[in-house]
Amino acid sequence: MRWLDSDAERRAQLEAHRDDALVSAALPLRANLSVLENIALVPQVLLNLDEAAAVREALELLARAGCEASAHRRDAELGHEERFVAKVLRAAVGRPARIVIERPGLMLPDTHYPPFVDSVLAVLADRLAEVLIMDYSWNRKLYPPQ
Amino acid sequence: MANTFLLSRFVSARNAGLLAWLHGWARVLHFAGEVLAAALSPSLYNRVTRTATARQIYFTAWQILPAFTLFTAALAALLVRITVTVAAAFGLSDEALGLIVRVLVLELVPLAAVLVVALRSGSAIVTEIAMMRVSDELEALRRSGVDPLRFELIPRVLATALSVIALIAVNCAAALAIAYLGVYGFTLWGFAPFTHVVGQVFDLQVAAGFALKCLLFGLAVAVIPISEGLATPQRADAVPLAVLQGMMKLFLAIAVLEVGLLIAKYI
Fold first, then answer.
1. Over 90: is that where the pLDDT of B151 sits?
2. Is the whole model's pTM more than 0.90, yes or no?
3. How large is the ipTM?
4. Beta sheet of A21-23, edge-to-edge order
5. Dihedral angle at the C-alpha atoms of B130, B132, B138, B139, nearest 10 degrees?
6. What is the nearest CA distance from A28 to chain B, expressed in angstroms?
7. CB contact under 8 A, B47 and A30
8. How large is the average pLDDT for residues B234-250?
9. Which residues of B are less than 8 Å from A31 in CB distance?
């Protein structure tokens, strides 16, 4: 967890983590691809999986996160939580060394987001090496005591 | 004094406009070079790129093939009929077929094909790339480990260029078939003189020029919209202007190529 006190600090942190997979409100899904295609694309490129294997893997991850229903929908048709899960899966499926989730509250405006983020990360625990959540310090009270 | 000041402001404004215009074309050429360099890299031709390229060919060429071929057939039938009738009236029936091949196959069909692809796919591509740039989708891909140049841009360039060339080839063949039917009717006896005339028109120089024209048309329609889309400032209100500039630049390039190659061939 990284607590931020200003936008300038956030930008500096993003710059410091520029090579990490990023989950952010500023980085949308590809609008003309479905959730499934957005996720399956990454292992096809990074791990040279064939399309069928990549789709199987993406479906399995979506099922784990309880979002199979959103597999064939595109970004504009998703709710905030579905979109957040899709972004996390897109970041996780390439097995990066670290995933950075910045300002989760901005992606989940209608959700008490700390427990939701924890639940998503918990079901993907075996796929994630290291996760860094960046949030503003004034949102600290939303999180459970460490 | 005031006039001098106004004149100098006018001249600097014009210079700035000219520089921006030249810079825009330099950007297009730079992107074309980048694409050509990447296209020569064997690592580009992986499964994902092939799939993306095939999908783009489906949208750009396959979807419009029936309608465009029908249009070409109707145009060819009309022009063949007019040319045969007028040539007969002037006692030049022997020259009709050569004239048809030169006008229809060498000039009109390629121009119609490139204009159709420019209008249909060029405008869609520049809009889509500009929207992707504005919404940061390209950066999102990059942060997921997917190189946008290789996955999003180069397949579009390759597919659009191949689509233009394929549409020209198929429709030129259709136009030749209709020219044959228009001149000789539903018989086989005219096949030898027909191939003789076509062979005379397509000498080595003309055939090379025709191939070069198809290639340049394909590259123009492929490269200019993407390059303009990538140069869009990251503001939603910049998208319509990017589309406008991209399409104007594309039509200018097509016009310059067409006129330039005509001049090179006939003057």
1. no
2. no
3. 0.86
4. A2-4, A131-136, A99-102, A21-23
5. 100
6. 6
7. no
8. 93
9. 131-132, 135, 137
Task: Give contacts of B150 with chain A, Cβ < 8 Å.
Answer: 45
Average pLDDT of B1-20?
76
Q: Are B137 and A28 within 8 A, CB to CB?
A: yes
B146–A32: do the CB atoms touch at under 8 Å? no
- Contact A28/B at CB under 8 A: yes
Phi-psi region of B185 (alpha: psi -120 to 50; beta: other; left: phi over 0): left
pLDDT of B1: 59
Chain A closest-CA separation from residue B225 CA (Å): 18
Q: A–B: how many Cβ contacts below 8 A?
A: 53
d(CA B225, CA A30): 19
For residue B147, the model assigns a pLDDT of: 87
Determine whether the interchain pair A27/B46 forms a contact, defined as Cβ–Cβ distance below 8 Å.
no
Q: Do B143 and A21 touch (CB under 8 A)?
A: yes
- B16 or B207, higher pLDDT: B207
Residue B173 parent element (H or E): helix B154-184
**B128–A21: do the CB atoms touch at under 8 Å?**
no
Whether B72 has a pLDDT exceeding 70, the answer reads: yes
Nearest to A4 by CA among A143, A140, A105, A107: A140
Q: Does B139 touch chain A (CB under 8 A)?
A: yes
Query: Within B202-238, where are the H helices?
Result: 204-230
Q: Are strands A99-102 and A2-4 parallel, antiparallel or unpaired?
A: unpaired
Secondary structure of A22-73 in HEC code, one letter for each residue: EECCCCCCCCCCEHHHHHHHHHHHHCCCCHHHHHHHHHHHHHHCCCHHHCCC
Percent helix / strand / coil, chain B, rounded to 5:
90, 0, 10
Q: Are B175 and B69 in contact (CB under 8 A)?
A: no
Report the alpha-carbon angle B229-B50-B232, nearest 5: 5
What tens digit of pLDDT does each residue of B182-195 get? 999 999 888 999 99
